[in-house]
């Protein structure tokens, strides 16, 4: 059934599908791990049970999201070896160690302390448990550090040398590879996006419960904390995004040209197009609606600064403009919508109506999934804007794929679609089910089984009891009964 498709296209669709699913969960768990650390720290500092209740409430949700993130991430390395084996062979000496560092540092750190964080509150001291929560939060950040370093190197490759067999090998300094030119901007922009994504989920859940009961103290607290994040961090994210855009203009100009819809060069100041329909065949933006010279002001900080267009780029090196143009606008549009909600919450807080404006709560509820949509749109802008290269200016995507036939790739793609929607659909449904219930005093958190962990070998030991208690006397009596009956 896949004979009429192109194997390269199917491989790209498969990777885009799986990484989009995967990206959702780390974008949530990175921010949620830090939020849990804040909640537990506030509980230890103030002694207020409300913070502990919120910690246990969100801990259950974090456990599921973290597990789905780990499982979906494993598939990424699987695809490197199947669909993109040429890329793995050529770039493996550079990206392989970086991904190994992620496992050796971040993954082991998270795995080592996750059990204590989930199940150890009643078994270790408060400070030790808080330290475990901090380590999990730090581990999620370290994981983002290494993965984004790999991804950034593919956009702005530095510090490499080409071996005799055509492989890209580490040069004199690993620091030049790790801290490549786009990495600091991408790291800040992505981590802030994860925090904002979590803030709007928390704010949406708080708004949902406030719409049902404005007196719910737990809903009030998490809605207030989320709106502080929206009001304070979203402006910082917009500023970080501007710096990231300037860096992209320097190192990947055709990506910015596609984002802006600039098919033609503008020697006297470029317009900012709000709307348009990219036409790659005619190399123009149809039905364009723009603001004169504002693009030059944003990108060059000068109204009259010249900006080159795609007419300076060969046709075979241009990215798909329509995809990049619209995904960028989705990301930016949602960013300013988030800013609007944050400013609205500041007005409500100033007037003492933060918990009494239902329209603000409805807006926060509608915006709850906006962070996920924005990070996916940003990822599409970044990755599609790099095309036709998988390693910018060094290796084309068409040259990186494995020599597979379309049916082989299509069969695995179909299997991924079915399994992902079944498994992760069930996980997302359960997360929404947990969010539907309001947090309450005495929240129970993550529960172990009543009989403890399952033992795969040996006899499960019985409970240790005092020999004089009633159960022990009953046991002794039961053992004597056969003799009496005989």
Automatic annotation (TrEMBL):
Main location as per UniProt: membrane
An annotated Gene Ontology molecular function: oxidoreductase activity, acting on diphenols and related substances as donors, oxygen as acceptor
Subcellular location as annotated: Cell inner membrane; Cell membrane
Cross-referenced InterPro entries: Cyt-d_ubiquinol_oxidase_su_1 (IPR002585)
Gene Ontology CC terms: cytochrome complex; plasma membrane
Pfam families: Cyt_bd_oxida_I
Region (Disordered): 444-486
Domain of life: Bacteria
Compositional bias segments (type: Basic and acidic residues): 469-486
GO biological process, one term: aerobic electron transport chain
Family the UniProt entry places it in: Belongs to the cytochrome ubiquinol oxidase subunit 1 family.
Protein name as catalogued: Cytochrome ubiquinol oxidase subunit I
Protein species of origin: Parapontixanthobacter aurantiacus
């Amino acid at each position: 059934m896949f004979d009429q498709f192109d194997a390269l296209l199917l491989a790209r669709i498969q990777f885009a599908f799986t990484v989009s699913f995967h990206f959702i969960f780390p974008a949530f768990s990175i921010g949620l791990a830090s939020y849990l650390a804040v909640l537990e720290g506030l509980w230890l500092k103030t002694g207020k049970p409300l913070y502990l209740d919120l910690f246990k409430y969100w801990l259950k949700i974090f456990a599921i999201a973290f597990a789905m993130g780990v499982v979906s991430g494993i598939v990424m390395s699987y695809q490197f070896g199947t669909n993109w084996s040429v890329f793995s062979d050529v770039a493996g000496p550079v990206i392989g160690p970086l991904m190994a560092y992620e496992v050796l540092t971040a993954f082991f750190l998270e795995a080592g302390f996750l059990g204590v964080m989930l199940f150890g509150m009643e078994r270790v001291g408060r400070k030790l448990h808080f330290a475990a929560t901090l380590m999990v939060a730090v581990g999620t950040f370290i994981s983002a550090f290494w993965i984004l370093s790999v991804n950034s190197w593919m956009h702005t490759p530095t510090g490499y040398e080409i071996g005799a067999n055509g492989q890209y090998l580490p040069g004199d300094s690993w620091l030049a590879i790790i801290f490549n030119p786009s990495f600091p901007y991408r790291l800040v922009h992505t981590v802030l996006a994860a925090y904002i994504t979590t803030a709007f989920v928390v704010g949406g859940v708080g708004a949902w419960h406030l719409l049902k009961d404005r007196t719910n103290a737990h809903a009030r607290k998490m809605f207030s904390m989320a709106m502080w994040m929206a009001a304070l961090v979203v402006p910082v994210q917009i500023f970080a995004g501007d710096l990231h855009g300037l860096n992209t203009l320097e190192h990947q100009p055709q990506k910015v040209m596609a984002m802006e819809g600039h098919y033609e060069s503008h020697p006297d100041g470029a317009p900012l197009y709000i709307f348009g329909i990219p036409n790659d065949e005619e190399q123009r933006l149809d039905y364009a609606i723009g603001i004169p010279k504002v693009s030059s002001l944003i990108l060059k900080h000068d109204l009259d600064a010249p900006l080159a267009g795609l007419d300076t780029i060969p046709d075979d090196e241009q990215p798909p403009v329509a995809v990049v143009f619209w995904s960028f606008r989705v990301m930016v549009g949602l960013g300013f919508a988030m800013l609007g909600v944050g400013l609205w919450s500041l007005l409500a807080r100033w007037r003492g109506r933060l918990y009494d404006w239902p329209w603000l709560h409805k807006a926060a509820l509608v915006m709850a999934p906006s962070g996920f949509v924005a990070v996916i749109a940003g990822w599409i802008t970044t990755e599609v804007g790099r095309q036709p290269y998988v390693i910018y200016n060094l290796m084309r995507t068409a040259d990186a794929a494995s020599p597979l036939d379309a049916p082989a790739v299509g069969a695995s793609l179909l299997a991924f679609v079915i399994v992902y929607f079944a498994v992760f659909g069930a996980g997302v449904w359960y997360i929404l089910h947990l969010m539907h219930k309001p947090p309450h005093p005495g929240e129970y958190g993550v529960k172990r089984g009543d009989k403890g962990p399952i033992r795969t070998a040996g006899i499960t030991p019985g409970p240790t009891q005092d020999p004089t208690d009633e159960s022990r006397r009953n046991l002794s009596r039961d053992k004597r009964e056969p003799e009496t009956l005989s």
